[in-house]
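To the team - fe (ii) ion complex, inputs and output below.
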Amino acid sequence: MQEKQMNRQEQRSPHQDHILVVDDEKSIRDILCEVIQYEGYRCSVAGNGKEALTVMEQEPVDVVITDIMMPHMDGMELTRIIRGKYDTDVIMMTGFVKNFTYESIIDLGVSDFMQKPVGIKELIIRLKRVLRERTILREQKIFEEQLKASMENLRKAIGGTIQTLALTVETRDPYTAGHQKRVADLAWAIACEIGLPAEQVDGIRMAGAIHDIGKISVPAEILSKPTKLTEIEFSLIKTHAQSGYDILKDIEFPWPIARIILEHHERMDGSGYPNGLIGKDTLIESKILAVADVVEAIASHRPYRPALGLDHALEIISNGSGTPYDANVVDTCLKLFREKDFYFI
Ligand SMILES: [Fe+2]
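Output:
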């Protein structure tokens, strides 16, 4: 009989799938196993739940076809263990259905259920369906993992590009070197503390790292002028928000980076630039970046003035809580410095 099975199996293209038939009646498990092997699958047998688990510890099993009523460990207990420990589907078969409700069997997580006497053709059809679903799920999982990996690579590439852009701006404007990074760090910390979703937090950090990219269109001598700026010079500096937007607006980042940069000098009361937008018309990311930018700029040295210090910066935003700065963002920023030991690196 064994020889006959092997010959039949060799005639057909063998599948990788491994099926385990569990039944305390030897004649039933042998005949089911022979049919399954005839279909080209690998098949093992066990006389009860305990024996089945021994087989499963030795090699992976794709589908267990199990009886319910068996000595030592019944099919219900076996299924509970399989569903908790293995990535294996279960097809259950029994002749004593009155002892179990259909719901209790389904609740165990079985993939299919058959009443004895089991029709061979039907069993094979159901087995193939379960295996097909496993293949689809497996392919879906591989696809999702590949997609996740490509997204991760893409994000790394975007992060690298953004760092390069940041360095380009700072090369022309050495007095603000490090400003963008420190603003990005503070904006990121505020966004995390507020509890924004990870996606938004990432976007804020990226936008912060290049928020002054528009200064590339401002003459370098104005950026590094060691005395107070004239009104015309200041109006030229103010174009950097719109310029930054124009540079980035056609790049399809996974975050609204161009818009955050456009809005980072807007204020809650409409007193900001370039468009004089009020709070409800700007993104939360822009409001966070605005506060982080002001705090870092006041606290640090500028070409036209020495550093005014962190305490002064915090006082300015505290006085401007609600107008012109978002109150929640201000509160969170103050909390970070005063209670959570945040500091600029
Ligand atoms: Fe700016």
